[in-house]
Write a structure and sequence with these properties.
The complex is a heterodimer of chains A (255) and B (110). Chain A has 255 residues and is an alpha+beta fold. In chain A, 40% of the residues are buried. Chain B is mainly α and 110 residues long. Classes of the chains: A alpha+beta (255), B mainly alpha (110). At the A-B interface, strand 9, helix 5 and strand 11 of A face strand 1, helix 1, strand 2 and helix 2 of B.
């Protein structure tokens, strides 16, 4: 998969999963799902890295998950002049470096918030971030919308901390409305690190209302023992030593 | 930590610029450490604030921190030296000291 395609996949992931629409967080439903429903959902989620996903199979998986969640995924006509947010949706599965399932979340594409498929509560919140291993893999399936033409001549960006991480555009003349793929984070990230980041993004097109959202992602690396953490410790320790030994006022005898 | 109080014979030298630079280093390290331990969310503004606060704290330390005592013994001041008596008749070779003519005996005739 080329880098551009991967980034396009990230855009789809953005629209599908990472981000809930602006109004979602406030209107979030933190009621956990029934245990039996959760158990049935867990059966649907591959426990280990499934490798490359097939788009039709992913679509079927999504439908089954939505059926289990007993939520409608039908996106009606946008109507004349009205804006419907949250028409994009999908799912994302996160696996650690050993290929074991770490986290899973789904957005059905309606006005509800994304759902943590393992806990049954709202996903991508600051208290329940989407967990990602910087040396692991994220498999995803996303749509915009689930039925009908995809975004024509669209552009997108993903930002964190007011810095654009990635952006792009695509005429998408075939009007594809869904994307499936996997992001190997070890290939994408220059170094493994730990961080809790807030992601914001937007996907706009000439034929659809924008897909706007935000969410929290938790990169679970080696913490302070990772390369970035060790570099931080060196800076911190060196700075403290310098401050104590080199910057303290000194007294000298007058001559 | 040995500190000293300035006396009339000592002077205190402050290092605010060094303190700022070391504080800057501490601030960057601290901000990154807080992020990688996930104690704070990655936020550039917050990280810059932490770094600036640490740099300013370092500068204040370099300016107002407790001063280190001077190292080594105080410098030995040279003892008061009486200047040599100037003779009006110092010989040019400097090998002998001329006598005061008033104390000389008159020359003996013959």
């Amino acid at each position: 998969m080329t880098r551009r395609a991967r980034l396009g996949g990230i855009a789809a992931l953005l629209g599908a999963m990472i981000i809930s629409t602006y109004g979602h967080a406030a209107a979030g439903d933190d009621t956990p799902l029934d245990d039996q429903v959760l158990a049935a959902i867990r059966v649907e989620i591959p426990e280990y890295d499934p490798g490359e996903l097939d788009i039709d199979q992913a679509n079927g998986d999504f439908d089954r998950l939505v059926t289990l969640l007993s939520q409608s995924t039908t996106v009606a006509s946008f109507g004349d002049g009205s804006q419907l947010t949250g028409f994009c949706g999908g799912y994302a599965y996160s696996y650690d470096k050993d290929g074991k399932l770490l986290d899973a979340a789904l957005d059905v594409g309606d006005d509800g918030p994304p759902i943590d498929l393992l806990d049954g509560v709202q996903a991508f919140t600051s208290g329940n971030s989407f967990q990602v291993d910087p040396q692991g893999v994220v498999a995803y399936f996303g749509f915009s919308p689930q039925t009908g033409d995809g975004p024509l001549d669209h552009s997108w960006f993903i930002k964190t901390s007011r810095v654009t991480l990635a952006s792009g555009s695509d005429p998408n003349t075939p009007l594809n409305n869904r994307e499936v793929g996997r992001i190997d984070l070890q290939d994408e990230l220059p170094v493994a690190f730990s961080a809790k980041i807030k992601v914001e993004g937007e996907l706009t097109s000439s034929n659809q209302p924008p897909c706007i959202g935000r969410g929290h992602v938790d990169f679970i690396g080696n913490g302070i023992t990772g390369p970035v953490g060790l570099a931080a410790l060196v800076l911190l320790g060196g700075g403290l030593l310098g401050l104590l030994l080199n910057a303290r006022p000194t007294t000298t005898y007058k001559r | 930590m040995s500190t000293t109080t300035p006396t009339p014979h000592t002077a205190v030298h402050t290092h605010p610029v060094r303190g700022f630079m070391w504080g800057l280093m501490i601030g960057i390290g601290l901000a990154v450490a807080l992020v990688v331990t996930r104690l704070i969310t990655l936020d550039l503004i917050l990280m810059v604030i932490i770094t600036v606060i640490a740099a300013i704290a370092g500068m204040l330390w370099g300016q107002f921190g407790p001063a280190k005592a001077p190292t080594g013994p105080p410098p030995v001041r040279p003892a008061h030296v009486t200047p040599p008596t100037v003779s009006r008749f110092d010989d040019f070779n400097g090998s002998a000291t001329a006598k005061d003519p008033r104390t000389l005996e008159p020359p003996t005739p013959g």
